[in-house]
Automatic annotation (TrEMBL):
<feature type="transmembrane region" description="Helical">
    <location>
        <begin position="722"/>
        <end position="738"/>
    </location>
</feature>
<feature type="active site">
    <location>
        <position position="148"/>
    </location>
</feature>
<feature type="binding site">
    <location>
        <position position="148"/>
    </location>
    <ligand>
        <name>UDP-alpha-D-glucose</name>
    </ligand>
</feature>
<keyword id="KW-0328">Glycosyltransferase</keyword>
<dbReference type="GO" id="GO:0071555">
    <property type="term" value="P:cell wall organization"/>
</dbReference>
<feature type="transmembrane region" description="Helical">
    <location>
        <begin position="691"/>
        <end position="710"/>
    </location>
</feature>
<keyword id="KW-0472">Membrane</keyword>
<feature type="active site">
    <location>
        <position position="453"/>
    </location>
</feature>
<feature type="transmembrane region" description="Helical">
    <location>
        <begin position="27"/>
        <end position="48"/>
    </location>
</feature>
<protein>
    <recommendedName>
        <fullName>Cellulose synthase-like protein E6</fullName>
    </recommendedName>
</protein>
<feature type="binding site">
    <location>
        <position position="313"/>
    </location>
    <ligand>
        <name>Mn(2+)</name>
    </ligand>
</feature>
<dbReference type="GO" id="GO:0016760">
    <property type="term" value="F:cellulose synthase (UDP-forming) activity"/>
</dbReference>
<dbReference type="GO" id="GO:0012505">
    <property type="term" value="C:endomembrane system"/>
</dbReference>
<feature type="transmembrane region" description="Helical">
    <location>
        <begin position="60"/>
        <end position="78"/>
    </location>
</feature>
<feature type="binding site">
    <location>
        <position position="119"/>
    </location>
    <ligand>
        <name>UDP-alpha-D-glucose</name>
    </ligand>
</feature>
<keyword id="KW-1133">Transmembrane helix</keyword>
<dbReference type="GO" id="GO:0016020">
    <property type="term" value="C:membrane"/>
</dbReference>
Length: 739
């Protein structure tokens, strides 16, 4: 896609609907990156030419360091691919309104939820209400909620939301408020004196709270009000025995957007709203979120079949009322629009703490790396906050003569009754429907991978389509990030396993993408796919130097040696750049530091275990799973999260590894400092200074770990069983001879 310019001037297409610009100072950056590369090469030369002789102590440790540094360097080179040509996109939504206002296409919005306990119905409802209030003709919106929890309470919550939306949507539009998730809005504007339209505000707030209380008390008591149950035939579905993993297909059209008599409080037509819970049977694979999305694809084909689809997780509320219009600018652009399969927003979170204790903020990833991949026309599909062209999700290949759908109005369902639509929709979400079809392979999201999104996005790109990464100033969507270390590490492990699995599958970007996406994009994908093997060099770097220090074996050049400069330069330049980059992307210095800790922890725990689990899966010894992220917390945990105190709390084996490495570095630091201080001018000591320094940094990074090990008494501290195991492991490690 063109840089600096976009769109065609043709009569039919008019002015471009979006523009692309490249990041500034790329030239300077490339020169700088080259100097680091020189430093890296010097380090290799030093390592290779100074390997200890056979029989000399530390020969294998040295070789380990060599391999680790080589691996780090390769990875660093890969990280350059996404920094080479960072591209930003800007849509012109006013031009869209001018040209298309009276023929705006329909949009289907998919919301996935999977468990009423971990994803409470009020959460789902807030997401739903935020999208119903988009600045877009409501009758062109069709919202589908997929409930993998098969929960009556979620269904009940949707009914409540449908009535409340009749007040909420007009309120949002009338006063042009943001954000449009009621929960988020009232949290942000919590005082009636701050708003000019106080009376309306009070009324709508009361309506919202009443609705919320009804839903929450229904969930708490496990009882839905009888009169509501009588009013809606949908509840009869739960007369049969329905459990999360065993129930018939359920499809309920809650509001019918075709009905020209159904109006909201302001006399505007309503959006179509559909509750879907696909059939589930024990022993029948349901393919987790990918299966849910594919079910919605088929259901929506029966009911509304809009040409564009917005895919959302139930915790991702819409934070910008114009997102649909902006996305359409890309799809409907006269020159490039028809090549574009999807428009991905970054994942942002509403619940980050000030300094982002668990490193979920992804400041640099969102502002630089993903924009870098987007520059190759190969933006990653991240599962949520993504607009799709319907045909592309159905496996269509891009061809040169494709010009985009001409007829954007959906006509096919006009003369069918709600009953008929529900029946035909149920038929396409049974367990047996997909048997012997291309679903999950060439159609819909791809099955068998815990990161179904990434692999499906890659497959779409390899069918010839382009994708757009769009990171607007006002965030398009806000979700909930994990708020305990356990949850964060489990999520990272799922991602890491899924990503590594793609690398080994037929979808490996270098093979599958060869000749189809640019080399830079292939490398960019691998930046993420290769997280798992990155655990080994990291493991090596946090164990070998401290162990060698304990044994007095040097691994780095003397401080006075010219070789030392290469190490120092690479270390300083890389980290200083990383800090500047993070600050520019909106991170704070402390958040950067916290992220370094999280990288370290992830690599030696989540990624390390993910590596072995992936191998196990490749050998056919285990099956794909999807560990859902819990979105509710106890008060105690919330409090610590807000104070940015790390939450350990469980005796996870991951913490044993973490604690062992932290203790090892502490021990070595003490020992090494003593040794260096005692004989300051001996040559051996001078050679050990770098190792002491390295241990020092690791100890600083691990400070919260020592705290949780020895000084905390709250429930989030590291359990004593972990301490015991770590000390045992540490003793073994120290007694081990070094080769
Ligand atoms: O059997 C399932 C499991 C999950 N989900 C939904 O999938 C979404 C993501 O689940 P979550 O537990 O929040 O996982 P995250 O790690 O936060 O999800 C990220 O990573 C996933 C891939 O691992 C992507 O699918 C998501 O879009 C992306 O937000 C949620 O809406 C769930 O309701 C289902 O519908 N059915
Ligand atoms: Mn999530």
């Amino acid at each position: 896609m063109g840089k600096q310019e976009s769109g065609g001037e043709g009569e039919e297409s008019g002015l471009p609907l979006f523009e692309s610009t490249s990041a500034r100072f790329r030239g300077i950056y490339r020169v700088f990156a080259s100097t680091i590369l020189v430093g890296i090469c010097l380090i290799w030369v030093y390592r290779v030419t100074n390997i200890p002789q056979p029989g000399e102590a530390g020969r294998w440790a040295w070789i380990g360091m060599l391999v680790a540094e080589f691996w780090f360097s390769l990875y660093w080179i890969i990280t350059q691919s996404v920094r080479w040509d960072v591209t930003y996109r800007r849509p012109f939504k006013d031009r869209l309104s001018h040209r298309y206002e009276d023929k705006l296409p329909g949009v289907d919005i998919f919301i996935c939820t999977a468990d009423p306990k971990m994803e409470p119905p009020t959460l789902v409802v807030n997401t739903l209400l935020s999208v119903l209030a988009y600045n877009y003709p409501t009758e062109k919106l069709n919202v589908y909620v997929s409930d993998d929890g098969g929960s009556e309470f979620t269904f009940y919550a949707l009914l409540e939301a449908a009535s409340f939306a009749k007040y909420w949507t007009p309120f949002c539009k009338k006063f042009n408020i943001e954000p449009r998730s009621p929960q988020a809005y009232f949290a942000l504007h919590s005082d009636v004196h701050d708003v000019k339209y106080g009376q309306e505000w009070l009324e709508i707030k009361k309506l919202y709270e009443d609705m919320k209380n009804r839903i929450e008390s229904a969930v708490e008591t496990g009882k839905i009000p009888e009169e509501t149950k009588m009013q809606h035939k949908g509840f009869s579905e739960w007369n049969l025995k329905v459990s999360k993993n065993d129930h018939q297909p359920i499809v309920q059209i809650i509001t019918d957007g075709r009905d020209t008599n159904a109006m909201d409080n302001d006399g505007c037509r309503l959006a179509t709203m559909v509750y879907v819970s696909r059939e589930k049977r024990p022993q029948q694979p349901h393919h987790f979120k990918a299966g849910a999305v594919n079910a919605l694809l088929r259901v929506s084909s029966e009911i509304s079949k809009a040409p564009f689809i917005l895919l959302l997780d139930c915790d991702m509320y819409a934070n910008n009322a114009d997102s649909i219009r902006e996305a359409l600018c890309f799809f409907l652009d006269g020159k490039y629009g028809h090549e574009i399969a999807f428009v991905q927003h970054p994942q942002n979170y509403s619940n980050l703490t000030k300094d982002d204790i668990y490193g979920s903020g992804c400041f640099v990833i969102n502002a630089v790396e993903l924009a870098g991949l987007g520059g190759y026309g190969a933006a990653l599909f991240c599962g949520t906050g993504c607009f799709h062209r319907r045909e592309c999700l159905f496996g269509k290949k891009y061809t040169k003569d494709y010009r985009g759908q001409r007829n954007t109005e959906s006509q096919n369902t006009i003369d069918r009754s709600i009953q008929e639509l529900e029946e035909s929709a149920k038929a396409v979400v049974t367990c047996s429907y997909e048997k012997g079809t291309k679903w999950g392979k060439e159609m819909g999201l791809i099955y068998g991978c815990p990161v179904e999104d990434i692999v499906s996005g890659l497959a779409i790109q390899c069918r010839g389509w382009k994708s757009i990464y769009y990171n607007p100033e006002r965030k398009g969507f806000l979700g909930i990030s994990p708020n305990t270390l356990d949850l964060a590490l489990i999520q990272q492990k799922r991602w890491c396993e899924g990503l590594f699995q793609i690398f080994f599958s037929k979808y490996c970007p270098f093979i599958y993408g060869h000749g189809k996406i640019m080399l830079g994009a292939q490398m960019g994908y691998c930046l993420y796919l290769l997280w798992a093997p990155l655990s080994f060099p990291t493991m090596c770097y946090v164990t070998v130097p401290p162990l060698c220090l304990l044994h007095g074996i040097p691994l780095f050049p003397k401080v006075s040696s010219p070789w030392f400069l290469a190490f120092a330069y690479v270390f300083v330049a890389k980290n200083v750049y990383s800090i500047i980059e993070a600050l520019q992307c909106g991170s704070s210095l402390k958040a950067w530091w916290n992220l370094q800790r999280m990288w370290l922890i992830r690599r030696i725990t989540s990624y390390f275990f993910a590596f072995f689990d992936t191998i196990k899966r490749q050998l056919g010894l285990s099956e794909t799973d999807f560990a859902l992220t819990d979105k509710v917390m106890t008060e105690d945990v919330t409090k610590r999260y807000e104070q940015e105190v790390m939450e350990f709390g469980s005796p996870s084996i991951m913490y044993t590894v973490l604690a062992t490495s932290a203790l090892l570095n502490l021990l070595s630091l003490v020992w090494g400092t003593r040794r260096v201080a005692m004989d300051i001018d001996s040559e051996a000591s001078e050679q050990l200074i770098s190792q002491v320094f390295l241990c020092g940094i690791l100890v600083m990074i691990n400070l919260p770990v020592y705290q949780a090990l020895f000084f905390r008494s709250d429930k989030g501290h590291i359990p004593s069983s972990v301490i015991f195991k770590s000390v045992l492991l540490l003793t073994l490690a120290c007694l081990m001879p070094i080769y």
